[in-house]
Design brief:
The protein is α/β, with parallel strands linked by helices and 213 residues long. It has 9 helices and 5 strands; from the N terminus they run βαβαβαβαβααααα. Strands 2-1-3-4-5 form a 5-stranded parallel sheet, sandwiched between helices. Helix 6 packs across helix 8 and helix 7 crosses helix 8. The N terminus is likely disordered.
Length: 213
């Protein structure tokens, strides 16, 4: 019997469409639209809830409402910019005005929609945003390097890596795999060392580069 010496495939990175709106009905409708188009969506009732969840290694696009209590959509956009995020942002408003629209675009929004939004238009812009983010992450990557030596990883380390490149935190990984946070942290350290990758972000970039080959 011949041995299968082929390498395991690089993990597929599913983009996430992040939806932030304090209107539960609008949030449900938008999430249904996004998921009906075959995309993964995560919804949040506030900017703070989104910031608690979001990790810089997550590939995707953000759709956010302007008027929300405590932190507005435009304030969230500014906060992400200050953190150096490249996540594309689409801004929506039920009470659009020139000042809000101007501020959103000056802060880097890829589009601004007045509610109710056109389904086809927002889906097209969301997909554009995802591809733009993918290219931005690739552009930030290190010069082209050799293939990741995934065969060096144990089965558990591979599971941890797959979750890391999907943007999961160590706590989320521990819950998903039924292990302690300390154990998930040890697996993360070992796999980064074996792959000679300095950080989670660089791991994501390398995986994206692998998928382009």
């Amino acid at each position: 019997m011949s041995l299968d010496t082929s390498l395991p495939p690089a993990p597929s990175i599913a983009p996430i469409v992040f939806l932030v709106d304090d209107d539960p009905g609008a949030l449900r409708s938008l999430r249904f639209l996004i998921e009906s188009d075959g995309l993964e969506a995560e919804s949040f009732g506030s900017a703070a809830a989104f910031l608690d969840f979001y990790q810089p290694t997550m590939l995707g696009c953000l759709v956010v409402d302007v008027r929300m209590p405590e932190m507005t959509g435009l304030d969230l956009q500014q906060e992400l910019a200050e953190r150096g995020s490249t996540l594309p942002i689409i801004v929506m408003s039920g009470h659009a005005d020139v000042a809000s629209c101007t501020r959103a675009f000056r802060s880097g929004a890829i589009d601004f929609f007045e509610k109710p939004v056109n389904d086809n238009q927002i889906l097209e812009r969301v997909r554009h945003g995802i591809e733009r983010h993918r290219q931005a992450l690739l552009a930030m990557s290190s010069p082209r390097q050799g293939a990741l030596q995934l065969e060096l990883l144990t089965a558990r380390e591979r599971e941890v890596m797959d979750l890391l490149v999907r943007g999961k935190s160590l706590k989320q990984i521990a819950l998903d795999l039924g292990i302690s946070i300390q154990t998930s942290a040890k697996h993360r350290s070992r796999l980064l060392e074996k792959l000679k990758v300095p950080s989670d972000m660089e791991l994501l970039r390398r995986v994206l580069e692998e998928q382009r080959r």
